[in-house]
Every structure is written in structure tokens, then in C-alpha cells.
Amino acid sequence: MRRGVSAACLLLGTLGTGAARAQTIDALRPVRDGFLAPQESPLRRTVVSGLSDPVPTPGVPTNPAPASTASSPNRVPLPGVPAASGAAEVGYDSLNRTRKKPKFYPAQARPKPAPGPGTRPSGELTGQLRPTLPPSASANRQPVAPAMAGTVPGQPPRKRLKVDDDPFGAVGDYVGPFLIRGAVELSAGYDSNPARLAKPRGMPAWMIAPEFLAVSNWERHALVADLRGSFTGYGSTLPAIMDGGINSAPTTLDRPDFTGHVDGRLDVSRDTSVGAQLRLRAATDNPGSPSVQAGLARYPVYTTLGTTLGFDQRFNRLQISAGATADRTSYQESKLTDGTMTSNDDRNYNQFGGIGRVSYEVTPGLKPFAEVQGNTRTYDQQFDRSGYQRDSAGGYAKAGTSFEFTRLLTGELSLGYATRSYTDPRLDRLQGFLTSASLVWSATPLTTARFLSDTQVAETTVAGASGVLVRTYTVQVDHDFRRWLTGIGKFTFGTLDYQGYGRNDRTYSAEGNLVYKMTRSLWVKGTLRYDRLDSNIAGAGSSGTVVMLGVRLQN
User: Which of 166, 266, 186 is nearest to 232 (CA)?
Assistant: First the structure.
């Protein structure tokens, strides 16, 4: 009995010693690959991935293959592997970044993949020889910063810049809130008949034409200044002649021409604005005009200074505009060939009037309107040099529409009627239809056609003539042979009706220009123009050809 009890105790002691030995081995198991192996059950052994079991277990390999580091659920990624490298291509990763598959433009650098296990920093596989390749075409190019190349991880791709519609156009400079652009054209050539006489006499000619444009860049309100002028000079003088008793010309034919205006707008509210304009016109009588005096040494210069003050009110699609106008026209004294001076005060006058316009936007591309204008003209002297009283009152009424058809045809077109009555009963009422148009047709991306029409009621010094009804029609076509080479064709037809005098003139002008755009700041321009005047008065017609070559400097 005692021997049986002793044997049982010995058996239990042996089992206890084995269990204690197993726990001691697990507790003292060394740390491998940076992880501590978990404790095992004393009754059943388990195999931990990546660790060898010192005690063999039947049916279990002694040294199983280690699992991949990236796929182990309890392991931290190894150095050299980017964070969130296993995230999908869309959604968000562990760094809270939006993951979208980037889009690359042609010739844009692609980001290189991060080097993985078994690769060298240069990217070749371990144990392989790097092949010898010839140097690429971009080997000697200056490297581009990653931020500029768009290869920084996590950076969105750069947006493509807008294509410049006019790569050779003036850029201008900003001065405070204004965009300033300036230009000047210098040209020289030959004019076969600068005085526009029946018997032509040619002269060399030169011209300088400056331009200035300033546009504000405010969120509200606006201010624009547009000043353009030219001065045409000739290398010689003409003798004081009278061309058949009809037309005359001064000995010096130099002529200035300037047109400028400054427009301002004050936005009182979203639908109400107040506008003002200051304008200046300086020029001379046209060569060949019957208003040119005989025996002049040079053309007298006249100036017209005017202003307009008005408002603009919008009621949804209905728009109402009204304004008051004031203009002053004055002439210089005429210098004669004998050195004496004669006054032109009988040609100076003041004009005061008003203008109103109502328009309605039927669609975003169609806006019909009606416009009415009236004014009075009062001369400084009651009688002119021929004994006529030139004071008058008149105006016009017209209706039309502004439109935009698929951005190919845009502009404004109107028809109306003008009339003017004079104080002197010997002067007939001046009246007639008027046309006004400004159309732009983008026929192709390289070709643009323009049509302009205008009607003016001008004053005259011709005895017995009430005034001149001037109508002008212009067609112009621009074509870009290349971005740097542009051809311009222009044709102008005009009529001059001297009502009460019985004279009717017709003018024709055909002009061709070729512009070579060397840079944004330098253009070369060639011009060929033919002018012709036909009249029902014998000996009043004329013709002339002008050839000019010059450069344009702009900023």
C-alpha cells in the first residue's frame, strides 16, 4: 500500500515538474524580430509565426517560414516603407489625405515609386548589374524644383494655364488700380496727291501716332481714359494755288488729328449708376473740302470740347438712360500766304442738348432699344462771312437692337431720321435718313469681319448750303496668316450731301495693311491706300495713292 502511494506521488511530482519547466521556458523565451512571444498553454503548444519552438510538436514543422513584414497584423511597418502605402487609390488614408489617381499632362514628369525591399537607392535589383545607357537629351538640363514639377507626394496636380488669345498683344503695366497701355507708331512714305486736287502733285510724307489707354480695376465704379492722335507732315510745300476755282490748298499741308475721351461711372446701387464723359476732338478741314479758304498758308485747327452727364436705371430687364450734353467748337485764326491773319469767329458755336434711350432685354443675346436726341447750336456771330444766320435746332430719332448670336455675330444696328431747322429763312431744312451700325463677325478663328456705319450732320461755310449730311460705311476684314503675321483689308464708302447747294460727293477708299509682329513690343507695318472723290461739280473730283512703312512700339 505504501509502495502504491509512493508511486502515485512520484508520478504527480514528475508531471508538475514538466509543467513548471514549460512555463519557465515560455517566460524566458528571447525576444525575436522586436516582438515578445505570447505564453503557451501548459497542456497544448502553439506555434507563433516567425519564432522557432525549442520543443518539437508532432505534426508541426520545427522552423516555419517567417511571414511577410507588411502582412503581419501585429507588426509596425519597417523603415523605408511609406505610411499608408497599402491604402486604396480613392478615399482617405491614415494621414487624412484624399487619395485620387493623379492625371498627368503630356511631357509631365511622373513621380518615381518608393524603393522596396531588395532594391538599391538607384532603383536596380540587388545582385544585378545596372545596364549602361547613352546619355538622354535632358541630361544637361537644369533640374526643376519638385514643387514646380508637381511631383511632391500629396500635392494636387498643377492646372494648365489659359491659352493666350493674342500672344503678341500689348501687356501693359499696373499703376495702382489702373492698367496702363501705351503705344506709338512711326511711319514714312509717299503721297501722290496730299492736297486732293484735280491736278495731283506728290510729296514724301511721315506720320507719328501716339496712343494711351488707362482702365481702372475696381470692383465697383469704373474710369477709362482713351487718347489717340496723329500728326502728318510733308517734306515740301505747295505754291498758293486755286485749283480751277473750285478747290484750294494751303502751301503747308501738315495736319494734326486727335480724339480722346475720359469716361467715368459711379455705381450708386445695383440697378442705378451715374455716368459722365469728357471728350476732346482736334483736327482740320479735310483736304479737297469746299470749306477750305483760298490763299491759306496752313490749315486752321479746330477743337471741339464737350461733356455728357447722365444716369442709368434698370428695372429688371427694362433699362432707361438719359443725359445732358454740352459742346464748344472753336477755330484758330487763318494765316494767309501774305502773312496776314483772318478771324474764324463766325465758325465758332456752342451746342447744348439732351439724349434719352430705352431698351428691353428680350433674351440675353437680344436687346432692342429706342433713342431720341435733340440740341441747339448758337454761333458767336449772328451772320457768317456770306451773310447767313447759322443758328439752328434739330435732332434725331432712331430704333434698333444690340444682339449676340452664338458669339459669332455681335454688335448693334439701328435706323432713324434726322432733321435740323435754321434761323435764316433762306436756308432749307436739313433732313434725311440715318444709319448706325457696329457689327463684328468671327467667321473663323483666324478671320474676323467688321462693318461700321455712321451718319453725322456737319456744318459748312458754303454759301446757300444749310449743312452737310455725311454718311460713312466701312467693311474691314482681318486675317491671321500666322500668329505673327496679319493681313487687314479695308474698304470705305461715303456720301456728302450739301443740302440747299445741290452738291453731292462720293468718296471711295481701299486700304491694305500687312502687320509683322516681331515681339509684343515691336511690330512692323506696311500700308497701301487709294482714295478717290467723285462729285457732280465739274473739277471737284480728285484721287491719290498713299504708301507708308513704319514700326509700332507698344507696352
Answer: 186
